[in-house]
Amino acid sequence: MRVAFVGLGVMGYPMAGYLSKFGHDVVVYNRTSGKAARWCEEFGGTSAETPLAAAKDADIVFTCVGNDDDVREVILGDNGVINGMSPGSIIVDHTTASATIAREIQGIAAEKSVGFLDAPLSGGQAGAENGQLTIMVGGDADVFERASPIMDCYAKAITLIGSVGSGQLAKMVNQICIAGVVQGLSEGLNFAKKAGLDSARVIEAISKGAAQSWQMENRWQTMNNGEFEFGFAVDWMRKDLAIALAEAQQNGANLEMTALVDRFYAEVQALGGNRWDTSSLIARL
């Protein structure tokens, strides 16, 4: 298929690469043109000067940018992809953003007979580079059925959650759960150290039981060693938690623990950990 990919960050760059590797005709756009040129040298696609130009004649346009404002600019702006798309084409937004912006875009896209899916990701940079992302999708079933085989190029699991906005809401659930798990693991490892226990033996024992988690399996050792220069940045996590907390104010959900952990992440930022992995919650202890 002819596809466009807008946003070649740490996630988008390898994701667009997988689309090219699987034989799709890929046009890319990135705000920093040098990165788009480098992508083309590596994967053999072509670059466009604007999102609109990238979207022209595309069957599907994928976007993966920073926040609501970025999404609105690259999709709905004067040079946004919506102005270059044909009836029957599809926009898939992989940005972690609000459900509100997803619904706004869907309404405008529908007026132009363009399909829209909000499809935030889980799996981080490593998942993108290994083509093993988990994708939570909101949108119409027929649009999902057309787009999911293409997303499968870089995914290990793709789930249609519900109507437009549902993907973003599911990603909020994902981040809420991660925040609590990482804080619990941080306190547990710190407790083990204060109690004079061998952390490796403790983890060996409890990781076989109900305390087991992805964070425990993949992060306990680096947390124990104070190594955080990798992974999903604290700045990004705070952006995601802010979206969840704002949504909770609207729907009445109680996110006391999430709000507390968000404040803890602010303390990590004050330590200079803006770009540290989210597992750096232990640093404040």
Structural summary, described in words:
The chain has 285 residues and is an alpha/beta fold. The protein has two domains: 2-163, NAD(P)-binding Rossmann-like Domain (Rossmann fold); 169-284, N-(1-d-carboxylethyl)-l-norvaline Dehydrogenase, domain 2 (Orthogonal Bundle). The protein is built from twelve helices and nine strands. It has helices spanning 12-21, 33-43, 51-55, 68-76, 99-111, 124-129, 141-151, 166-194, 199-206, 214-225, 234-251, 256-270, and strands spanning 2-6, 25-29, 46-47, 60-63, 90-93, 115-118, 121-122, 133-138, 155-162. It is globular. It starts with a strand and ends in a 15-residue tail after the last helix. The model has no long low-confidence stretch (mean pLDDT 98).
Number of DSSP strands? 9
Structural class based on helices, strands and sheet pairing: alpha/beta
On the 0-100 scale, what is the average pLDDT?
98
Percent range for β-strand residues? 5-15%
* Radius of gyration (Å): 20 Å
Q: Uncertain regions: pLDDT < 50 for 5+ in a row?
A: none
Which key features would you list for this structure?
285 residues; alpha/beta; Rossmann fold; N-(1-d-carboxylethyl)-l-norvaline Dehydrogenase, domain 2; 12 helices; 52% helix
